[in-house]
Each structure stands twice: as C-alpha cells, then as structure tokens.
C-alpha cells in the first residue's frame, strides 16, 4: 500500500477515535476538530524543520501561565542566526505584479513599531521603500531629519504640532489635518489609543522581536551598558537627586568608582581600532583582548540589578536614565509595557495577549525570510515588495564567544522579553503551517530573488563603517553606478532612503533641493 493510502487510513481512524472521545466525554465536537487540526498543523511544521535540521517548536499549551519558563533548547531558533542574505540560484524570469497573492487588495496603511537590535532596520527599509514608491505619507519627527525617530515622545496634540512632519499636500500649520497618515517605521513606543487618532482607520500595526539571549547582547554594545562597570559615577551622596535607599543599594565606594578589575577597559574598547574592510570603504573595528565583551557581560550578569541602577544616573544621547530603561526587557518596553510591571508575570502575560489581539503581525528575527512570506500574504504584497538587502550588519560578531549558560542568564534577566519572544515565535509557526503546501517553494523562490537582487543591484565592494557610539563597525552594500531607482533604494543606506521620504514630505524643501541631495 502507498504511503498516501496509509496516511489516509490513519487520518480516518484518528477522526473516528476523536469523535468517539467527544461523545463519551460529552465534549464539544468543533473544539476537538480544532485540536486535531492543530496536531496535523504541528506535524507539518515539524517536517519542515526536520528537513532543515532545526528544533520542533513547543505547542502553545506548554507555556506555563503561572511561572517564568527557563529558556531551553526546545524553543525554535535557540541557536539559529539570521538567515543568509545572498541565496544563489537559477533565476531568469522578471518579477511582476502577478507574484502578488490573488484576489486581495494591497495593505497601504501600516504602523511599524521599530524595536531595538532586532533586525528592525532591514524591515524598516522594506516598509519605507514601499511607501516611497506608492507616494504615501509617513509619521516622522521633523526635529530629527536624520532618522525621524521619536523614542519616548508621546503622541499628544502638542507633540504632533511641534514634531510631526505634515502629511503630503497638507500645509505646515494646518494641524487639524495632521490625520490619516499611511505609514510609520521609526523608533517609538507603542501607544495604540493615541496612535489611532493620527493613522488611517484601517491601519495595520506590526513589529519584530528577537531571542533576548541574542538581542540583549547586541543592546549591551549599542547602549554601552558596560559603562555601569567601567565609569566612575561622580555625584554627591547628599544630592537630592539620589534617595538614601538608592545610595545604600549602590554602596558608597561603587557609587564613585568603576570596577577596579576592569580599569582601563573603556579606553581600550573605544580607542584601539584597527583598519578593516575592502575596496573604497575603510572601516574600523575594535581589537578585543583582555577587555572582552563576554567578560563584561558576565560581570554585569553577576549583579544585574546593581549595574542597572548605576545606569539610572548616566546619560545617553543627552538623556539621563535612558540606558536604565533599556537595560532590561527593552522589547516589551518599546511595545508599551511600563518598566514597573515587568516583574509581575501575570501582568506580562496579559500584555502579551493584548498585543496578540492588537497587532496584525509580529515578525521573528531568526526566521526573517519566513516572516516576510507571512507578511506578503497578509498584506497582499508582491515578492518584489518584500525584497531587501540587509542593513546594519555587524562585523566581527564571531569574536564574541558567549556561552550558552551566559545567554540563559541573559534570558532570565529579560524574563518578560523571553515570554514575549516565545509566544510570538509559536504564533509565527502556526501561521507557517496554515500557509499551505506552497510555503517551501515560495521560500525558495524568494531566496533566489534575494540572491539576484544582491548581484544585480550592488557592487562587489562593501563599505565598512565605524561609529564611536557602538563597539562594532557595520557593513553596507554599495549600489551599482548604473543602478535603477528600485535597485538604489534597495542598496543605499537607511539614512539615504529615509531622506528621500523626509525630503519629499517636507513642504519647506524645494524639489530641486531634494534632487540634489538624493
């Protein structure tokens, strides 16, 4: 008998047994059919993962609602890195609008909550490019022409008047018509009830999350959390800025002095760069030896509450305490949950369920391409719409060797983010299972497209950039000299693409000035 026939027999037997159990226990038949469907769906996901030698995801029911699960290898993407951006393959046909899912209308109103260190910049450029080519209006901070970010600024009427760039064809002082924006793809905290006042009525809200064991390590470098270990905290213990309880918690000696065990490390990390990179771009990257990032992270994790409290009294980008807010559970914090509630696991789970109800889509960093296929189908976009060339690709990541045990400590420290990631990771795989049998072929098609885009739109040379605010340089691709506008918007930096949008929407700039800039 064929394997197909055997499967059909087993399926019929399973349905009969399930039906019998329903009548015997006086249960509801539809709910049991849903359970059976979930089992079959999980089997499809398991088969997909086995073909890639990946771990099978844990069913939703295994998420304990009364305790914080310790992060173990049973959750998908435990040790899986970002998918490779260049996928060589046979490619001959051109992309066309026919690659869009049939019988649907493209979504053009999107509020993307850009989280930190989650691969969010690459996703931002996808959304920005779509909005640019469809002449859509973006919510942007006009006081920040470089990137348009808001960070902690609330979306109040006052902030809208003082900071919002007006929509296309709306006068700068016509504040009542600062409404019905189509898109947003900047750093801002999620404020659904307020955001709805400014976006078009049918706006879809979305975000991206990442395994905290990887994401927090990247945030550690970005925000230089190591300053809590290395810097002297100069302050008068009698100052009204510090409460007595805080002084006692920090300890007078540690309040003033950085850790003597790491003396000199900050200078070594920031001021001993070596040249690297090829072609025209000459970048710089740190040379790690005695003062390594893993050792500093290990020190931070040995007493995280102590070091986070020190960050409360250190500035970042001119703002006191900003690093304190981002030193723990910064993903769920950006998604609107206040820091004071992060230790209440019941409240955390309720917030996650609220996000599940309110967000149309949550992408997973470790399965970026797979997430984009789900996004394409939900938004009725084409393969061309979701094409990308990765941005902010960190260099020399291989030099950071963090043990699994240390990553587990990081996940425990970020327990709320771990729950957030685990929940939406499972959600993604349920959607992949529901996608249908064409998922794998669509994924192969898409990855072939990415390889073609990379070859046809970019030069072989890679720019390697160094920024003193970060402990790693990053690489950027360079557009071909004869690149089309589509290729150029794919390959150019996030800043250049942002400026195209900002410049077109800012009525105070002339068309000629915009053309000269871009």
TrEMBL record:
One of its GO terms (molecular function) is galactosylceramide sulfotransferase activity. Gene3D superfamilies: P-loop containing nucleotide triphosphate hydrolases (3.40.50.300). Keywords: Glycoprotein, Golgi apparatus, Membrane, Signal-anchor, Transferase, Transmembrane, Transmembrane helix. Pfam families: Gal-3-0_sulfotr (PF06990). GO terms for biological process: glycolipid biosynthetic process. It is a single-pass type II membrane protein. It is found in: Golgi apparatus membrane. It comes from the Eukaryota. Its main location: Golgi. GO terms for cellular component: Golgi membrane. The keyword Disulfide bond does not apply. The keyword Magnesium does not apply. Belongs to the galactose-3-O-sulfotransferase family. PANTHER family: GALACTOSE-3-O-SULFOTRANSFERASE (PTHR14647), GALACTOSYLCERAMIDE SULFOTRANSFERASE-LIKE (PTHR14647:SF85). This is Galactosylceramide sulfotransferase. It comes from Strongylocentrotus purpuratus. The lineage of its organism: Eukaryota, Metazoa, Echinodermata, Eleutherozoa, Echinozoa.
């Amino acid at each position: 008998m064929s394997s197909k026939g055997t499967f059909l027999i087993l399926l019929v037997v399973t349905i009969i047994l399930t039906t019998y159990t329903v009548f015997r226990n006086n249960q509801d038949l539809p709910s049991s059919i849903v359970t059976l469907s979930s089992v079959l769906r999980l089997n499809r996901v398991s088969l997909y993962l086995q073909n890639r030698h990946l771990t099978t995801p844990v069913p939703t029911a295994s998420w304990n609602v009364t305790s914080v699960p310790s992060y173990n290898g049973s959750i998908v993407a435990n040790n899986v890195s970002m998918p490779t951006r260049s996928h060589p393959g046979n490619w001959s046909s051109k992309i066309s609008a026919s690659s869009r899912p049939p019988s649907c209308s493209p979504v053009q109103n999107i509020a993307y909550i850009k989280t930190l260190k989650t691969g969010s910049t690459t996703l931002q450029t996808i959304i920005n490019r779509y909005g640019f080519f469809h002449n859509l209006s973006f919510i942007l901070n006009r006081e920040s022409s470089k990137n348009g970010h808001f960070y902690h600024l609330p979306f109040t009427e006052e902030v809208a008047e003082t900071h919002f760039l007006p929509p296309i064809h709306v006068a700068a002082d016509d504040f009542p018509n600062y409404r019905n924006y189509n898109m947003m793809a900047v750093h801002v905290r999620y404020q659904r009830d307020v955001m709805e006042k400014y976006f078009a009525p049918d706006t879809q809200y979305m975000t991206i999350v990442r395994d905290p064991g990887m994401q927090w390590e990247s945030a550690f470098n970005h925000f230089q959390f190591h300053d809590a270990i290395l810097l002297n905290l100069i302050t008068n213990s009698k100052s009204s800025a510090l409460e007595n309880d805080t002084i006692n918690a920090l300890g007078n000696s540690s309040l003033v002095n950085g850790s003597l065990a790491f003396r000199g490390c900050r200078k070594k990390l920031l001021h001993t760069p070596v040249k690297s990179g090829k072609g025209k771009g000459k970048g710089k990257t740190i040379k790690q030896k005695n003062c390594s990032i893993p050792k500093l992270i290990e020190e931070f994790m040995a007493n995280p509450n102590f070091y986070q409290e020190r960050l409360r009294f250190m500035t970042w980008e001119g703002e006191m305490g900003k690093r304190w807010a981002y030193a723990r559970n910064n993903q769920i914090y950006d998604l609107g949950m206040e820091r004071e509630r992060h230790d209440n696991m019941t409240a955390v789970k309720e917030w996650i369920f609220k996000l599940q109800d309110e967000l149309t889509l949550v992408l997973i960093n470790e399965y970026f391409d797979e997430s984009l296929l789900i996004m394409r189908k939900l938004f009725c976009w084409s393969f061309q719409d979701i094409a990308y060339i990765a941005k902010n690709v960190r260099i020399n990541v291989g030099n950071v060797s963090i043990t699994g045990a240390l990553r587990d400590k990081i996940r425990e420290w970020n327990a709320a983010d771990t729950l957030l990631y685990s929940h939406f990771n499972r959600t993604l795989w349920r959607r992949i299972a529901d996608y249908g049998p064409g998922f794998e072929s669509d994924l192969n098609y898409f990855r072939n497209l990415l390889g073609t885009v990379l070859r046809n739109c970019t030069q072989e040379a890679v720019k390697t950039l160094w920024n003193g605010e970060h402990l790693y340089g990053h690489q950027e691709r360079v557009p071909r000299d004869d690149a089309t506008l589509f290729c150029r918007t794919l390959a150019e930096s996030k800043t250049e693409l942002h400026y195209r949008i900002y410049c077109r929407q800012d009525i105070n700039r002339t068309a000629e000035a915009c053309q000269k800039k871009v």
